[in-house]
Amino acid sequence: MITKLTELAEWVDSVARRTQPAEIHWCTGSAEENAMLTNGMLETGELMELNPVTHPECYLHRSDPDDVARVEHLTYVCTVDADEAGPNNNWMAPDTAHALMDELFDGCMQGRTMYVIPYCMGPIESPFSRLGVEITDSAYVVANMRKMTRMGSPALQRIEREGSFVRGLHSTGELDPERRYIMHFPQELAIQSYGSGYGGNALLGKKCHALRIASHQARTEGWLAEHMMIVGIENPAGQTRYVAAAFPSACGKTNLAMLIPPEPYRSAGWKVHTVGDDICWLHPGEDGRLYAINPEAGFFGVAPGTSKKTNPNALAMLDRDAIFTNVAATADNQPWWEELGDGRPALDWQGRPYDPKNGPAAHPNSRFTVSIDRCPSYSPEAENPSGVPIDAIIFGGRRASLAPLVMEARDWTHGTFLGAAMASETTAAATGKVGVVRRDPMAMKPFCGYHFGDYWGHWLDVGGGLAQPPKIFQVNWFRRDAEGGFIWPGFGENMRVLEWVLKRCSGEAGAVETPVGLMPEPDAIETGGLSERPDMETLLGINAREWSKEFDQIEKHLEKFAPHTPQVLIDLARELRNAL
Ligand code: GTP
Ligand code: SPV
Ligand code: MN
Fold this sequence. Notes:
9-stranded mixed beta sheet, binds sulfopyruvate, binds manganese (II) ion
């Protein structure tokens, strides 16, 4: 027996009886194991070696062309009572879901290896960390989990000590979209995923565990599991404040987490410390502040748009020991994607000779996987078992119009309202239409494991119990002009907005009250050093008529979650609309 934890051994046995693998491999996370799996995948063609001179230990994986993003319409929360999952989730009765999944899993691993991956979400020694075991028949999943989580022997030891873990079962199956389901059983601490090998559908520690299951646990235990990046910003005086920001998928978390301050900030001494880029677990501390850990240990980042100009820190970590999924390749076998800047694609993401008639060379949701400690701005605080204290929470979306560059909530309740009312244009991170504005509360629309109305109530409860709650802000880097171009330069220049945010936290900047939120005073956002001054009047303008239409939609949206929606949010919407 590989483990002394009977429950784990019995579960693995029962899964093996159902799925009938040829072999069972317990993952230790060692370098030898990784080399063995990599060699195996090079033989089967699951991985291709990239240019060993420019990109040593970098590999390309091409997924099935029908399996390139999260599938929200096939993702379910299976609570006993449908009302618990809420209108924000697809729901299936647990019995029905189990029957369906049992049939799919029956014999599905015949002739294949079944990998058992013990993992720990969060620093191994942190009381805030949570444990899981993913069983999968995909070596690619193992290789990704190794970079993105603390997996293997140390995790298994803690699982054996504590006895409690989330049970994740995954099989790539036939990769048939008609036989694909991502099922969550929060009350059983279980996840079952079949028919996809991609990202959030298959790397079960990430969205399935660290958000959908964890949000459910967090609700009962008094903390928050959020789709947020975490960054420390050090000012010239050497003082670091931590900020957590929730933007929907492919809306700028990774970029903000590792931004390089532009001149004149850099020479003045501003520094950025990356703690996390996608998921954040927030716990109230004894001092009445909110403490954040990043449950992950690596990045699964969007490739297109990443360049030396937009995100030099990302590029610096992508020249060694990285996995690329669905990017294009140059003639000399270097990874390539749109807006990379250098080189030209020879083969597109499906391995065909590149032809612009077939669309972009790299898939719009192509990704890189790399360990967080490869990031030049990596913060050792990411390993702090107690987490980092958060001074500001930022909500952001991708909106061509209306939403201003930045504004601040009056207080925690108003901040919760801003989060609940968030909307953003859809992106390629999930299958479906791109560019459609939809409500995406707290960037959690696809990830909240329970009823949004209850979730907002939980936000109010957690914030209400804090003596020093973080200030809450809303940003939008994505306003467009009449020609469709971005008005705000974005990326590193977002530091200018962060400076105002931090100065609001330290009491060094004023604000102007408006019915939608507290706005920067004129010229409070530094534009010196930009090649041209952006249209700040548009970026910070409030159009009362457009906002009034927005409030119509927000009220309807809050209504959709009644009677679970906290009354204070409904009342606040009415009050703000009347003030407009
Ligand atoms: P997920 O990993 O899907 O959760 O995405 P994310 O929120 O981490 O988004 P990411 O930082 O990877 O950015 C997604 C896309 O938006 C990339 O193509 C970026 O180049 C682009 N982007 C990020 N920040 C900015 C910005 O400030 N301005 C503009 N115009 N584009 C940005
Ligand atoms: C997202 O879609 O928000 C991601 C990528 O971070 S995935 O791992 O596919 O969820
Ligand atoms: Mn994400």
